[in-house]
Every structure is written in structure tokens, then in C-alpha cells.
Amino acid sequence: MEAKDVPPASAANLPTRLPRGEHLGYTMRGDVDQNPPGMSLFALLREDLRTHESLFAHGFVALAVNRFGNWRMRLPRLLRAPCTLVYRFLELCTLWLARIELPYIVKVGRRVRIWHSGGCVLGALYIGDDVQIRHNVTLGLAHHGAPLTSLPIIEERVLIGVGACVLGPITIGHDSVIAANAVVTQDVPPYSLVGGIPGRVLRKLEETERVTSVNVRGPSGRAAA
Predict the structure, then answer these.
(1) Phi, psi of 166 (to 5 degrees)
(2) Are strands 159-160 and 177-178 parallel, antiparallel or unpaired?
(3) Is the model's pLDDT at 104 over the cut of 70?
(4) Which residues contact residue 56 at a Cβ distance below 8 angstroms, ignoring those fewer than 6 apart?
(5) In the predicted model, is pLDDT for residue 19 greater than 80?
(6) What is the mean pLDDT of residues 95-101?
(7) Domain extents for the chain?
(8) Residue 166: strand, helix, or coil
(9) Which of 16, 172, 205, 215 has the fewest CB within 10 Å, making it most exposed?
(10) What is the pTM assigned to this prediction?
């Protein structure tokens, strides 16, 4: 997946129906560091490790490579060049060994967890904080050759079940659940349970069911605040 020119970005917290490529200030050009602001690369990796609970979790490895690919964009060109070679090698290793495709141009929030191993193609415009993704999930374009600005947006605290597909220029509203094997090609409002082929909103989640936040454990083993 290669970066292409897209319109300039606008501010955060805008309505969901935006021109593609203008969500949360993200242009998807791949020319700047799109890691969560205010945290060093080491701090992000440490949080991702606590989220995945294992250095050898495939999801942690894929996220670490994504974070590194973004971090190198803040370096001067001469220093960035060798890091780019390292990133390309690590990206291939992640694809072959972990079987997870998560290019650096995909903007990823904090405490994202990719459960279990493999089979994931995560081509989204944006993946929000506390999103949980099961194995064999596909996020991507609805049509071959469509521009990258028509990738889906996954808002905060969304849980995506095993084998689900989320395709096209759509937005999955925050605190929603995408059931296993659902194929979603239309916008989903917040707090929704979605299932079926094609995916449709089955009902609104009750407040007691909105438990999709990822509990990050601190060094002591207790859940961190």
C-alpha cells in the first residue's frame, strides 16, 4: 500500500461525514510522524507491550513496526535513509511471520490490541484508541484501485470480531462491536452491534455492554489508570 497525494487535513473531533483524508488531521501522505502525540517511541512501545502482555505477541510486533516506521519520519533525510531500509525489512518479516499487514501510513491510536495471530490486513485510514481486533480481520478498500482516501475509519473503543471485513469509505462509530464474519460496507453509528452479510446494525449496545476498553497492566500486574 503506497502513500498518494490527498487533500490537506482539518481539525480533530469533527463530524463523521468528512472528505476522506481529513479525519483527525491525517493526510495519509506518509511524510510525517503520525504516532500519538506527546509520547516518545519508547513510551509507546512500552504501553503497547503492556497492552499485549508479551514481547512475542504478533500484534505487538506489528504495532512496533508501524510505530518505528512513523518515528523515522521525524529524522533528517540522511539519518532516515538507513532507518527506512530497516523498516522495509521489518515490515516484510511481520508480513511473512506474523501475517499481519499494518503499513506505517495507517494512523494508529493508543492501546490498540491485535488478539491472537495472523491473517490480518489492516488498511484503515485511522484506527482509534482502545480498538481490539481479532484474527483474520480485513480493513481496506471496497474496490480494486480505489484511492487510499476511501479506506475505513475505526473510531475509539471498537471491537472487531474474528473474520470480519470493514471495507470502503465508511466510519465505524466509537464503542461499537462488529460481530464475527460480518461484512460492513456502510457507516455504523456509535454504540452499535453490527452483524451479518452485508453487515447491518442489529441493535444499540446497552451501557453495561460497552466494555471494549483495553485494560493496560502496569509493572506490578495491576490495571493501570
Answers:
(1) -125, 110
(2) parallel
(3) yes
(4) none
(5) no
(6) 92
(7) 29-101, 123-211
(8) strand
(9) 215
(10) 0.81
The per-residue pLDDT of the chain, averaged, comes to 83
Q: What is the DSSP string of 172-224?
A: E-TT-EEPTT-EE-S-B-TTEEEETTTTEEEEEPPGGG-------B-TTSSBP
- Say if residue 220's pLDDT is above 60: no
Cell of 9: 487535513
What does the block give as the cell for 64? 512496533
Residues in the chain, total: 225
DSSP element (H, E) containing 85: helix 77-93
CATH hierarchy code of domain 123-211: 2.160.10.10
pLDDT of 186 reads 93
Task: Please tell me whether residue 139 adopts helix, strand or coil conformation.
Answer: strand
Coil, helix or strand for 148?
helix
**Which pLDDT value is given to residue 10?**
38
